[in-house]
Amino acid sequence: MSVLSIQGLTRRFGGLVALNDIDLTVPERSIVGLIGPNGAGKSTLLNCLSGIYRPSAGKISFGGLDLVQTPTHRLASLGVARTFQNLELFGDATVRENVLVGCDYRFRSSLLSDLFAGPSARRAAREANKEVDRELAALGLLDVADTVVKDLSYGLQKRTELARALVGKPKLMLLDEPAAGANPTESHELGELIRRLRDERGVSVLLIEHDMPLVMGICDHVVVLDHGAKICEGEPAAVANDPRVVEAYLGEEGGDALH
Ligand SMILES: Nc1ncnc2c1ncn2[C@@H]1O[C@H](COP(=O)(O)OP(=O)(O)OP(=O)(O)O)[C@@H](O)[C@H]1O
Ligand SMILES: [Mg+2]
């Protein structure tokens, strides 16, 4: 069974074909890696999934639902959460406040009960705060819960964004370079965390990463894009040794980026 199924996805920007006829499947309870050199089209694919870009052609199905027709603001309630390559956090708000935004749709009470701060609104607020604390604890962020986000290290900001995505209890997580800026220890911890999301919460993950040890260590399946086209896919070890993939990365660090 697949959670996400993409068929023939194409996205053009003027004359540039950023994605060319891409097929991609994310099975239930799996981690699928999406790799490729800079400008390959990885973020564009995620942006098409989350409704930020409209595909020029193609179908995107999430559990049978047509994502192309689904407005971005409905995704969280449907079970799709994402993080961004360039963080999208409220820098002047605390970690807890940022994460609280992620469970907005789950604990929304009616406008009237909010206005009068009735029992149901208070109960909803209490529940939401409990969930946030649980998620902060799971991600090791309780110590910085009341710190303003812009005062945190980049790694902790990335983790905050992850907590905000997770608190909405997604079925599918779309992660755009979650390990960017992380040192090898942090990256390893992040890998363990993503693996636990799959194993303990049954979350499926589409993971964009340049950190190859992370990708090769945790992904069940890897898809490689280059210049908007899918050039290879398969098990991590096979993909890392595929001549087409090595060739695509040659322009980068002589192919060393893969190992
Ligand atoms: N809004 C846009 N308008 C015009 N061109 C765009 C736009 N967004 C992306 N592109 C182009 O599409 C191509 C793919 O970009 P994308 O950001 O998807 O690459 P990427 O694989 O995520 O790269 P990186 O690893 O550097 O993040 C690039 O050539 C980029 O310049
Ligand atoms: Mg990108």
Report what the structure shows.
Strands 6-7-8-3-9-10 form a six-stranded mixed β-sheet, sandwiched between helices. It is α/β, with parallel strands linked by helices and 259 residues long. It has two domains: 1-79 and 170-259, Rossmann fold; 91-169, no CATH class. Helices cover 38% and strands 24% of the residues. The longest helix is centred in the middle third of the chain and has 20 residues, at 119-138. The chain is built from ten helices and ten strands. Bound molecules: adenosine-5'-triphosphate (ATP) and magnesium ion (MG).
Considering the chains and any ligands shown, give keywords for the structure.
single chain, 259 residues, Rossmann fold, 2 domains, 10 helices, binds adenosine-5'-triphosphate, binds magnesium ion, 24% strand, 38% helix, alpha/beta, 4-stranded antiparallel sheet
Q: Work out the helicity level.
A: 25-40%
How many H/I helical runs?
10
Order of helices and strands: EEEHEEHEHHHHEHEHEEHH
Number of strands: 10
Describe the largest sheet: 6 strands, mixed
How many whole angstroms does the radius of gyration measure?
19 Å
CATH superfamily of the largest domain: P-loop containing nucleotide triphosphate hydrolases
Question: What is the domain total for the residues?
Answer: 2
By CATH, the topology of the largest domain is: Rossmann fold
Q: Mean pLDDT, rounded to whole units?
A: 90
User: What overall geometry do the principal axes of the alpha carbons give?
Assistant: globular
- Spans where pLDDT lies below 50 across 5 or more residues: none
Task: Report the CATH architecture of the largest domain.
Answer: 3-Layer(aba) Sandwich
Structural class: alpha/beta
Walk across the major sheet and give the strand order.
6-7-8-3-9-10
Strand share of the residues?
A: 15-25%
| Distinct small-molecule ligands in the complex | adenosine-5'-triphosphate, magnesium ion
